């Protein structure tokens, strides 16, 4: 089963704000490995397959730098199809002197780095779901050191770097929030996700279809953390892909039942989680 196709509800696209579009495009093309699908003076839609955009860069007017200790983006995560792809990116980043962190999460193996504005990116591969360990409704996850020796044995020596693989998808998103209880109610009762891991008292991981997580949320920037300024670097919004129009209607009904507004803009549905993170609902 694919965890990033219908009928599973999943994150399909993320929009982030940057201070200098041309500088960011150079980074996202040459270092991360995206291609440009569409471009204007202030926006760029990025793609890996030449057809679908999974990331959009926006340079707002009067943009301000990223501010710490607010709600919003912790990281967005690019899911690669094969372990060899992750190994090849390790070599590519190292050749370009790009600093990155790494973790073994039991369910996945991941790299972490930042773009020129401090927006954090995870690049990862999943372990086979048969290797995930479930205790009732909770999946085991950890932050262990990544075994680079094992990973790099999967690299393809001599293969020229050619960017992100065509089948790369937006694997998940992880957000800073101000209140975990309200956030859980919104994502579970409102959007229909299930909590699949409680990581201490300050983080939750949620999914549909028994994925290890499509959405992570945490209060690591502080309970009651304020929202960032509208024109500051960070996340503009992310998109949830639902299975059909009936699923959108059901979701809107659940959101209204818990007192959450749904806004229609140009025929598209938007809502905000309790910390002000903007979400587009689409099929």
From TrEMBL:
Keyword line: Metal-binding
Acetylation among keywords: no
Keyword Metal-binding: yes
Alphabetized Pfam families for the sequence: Glyoxalase
Domain VOC: 10-126, 169-283
Name of the featured protein: VOC family protein
Species classification: Bacteria, Bacillati, Bacillota, Bacilli, Bacillales
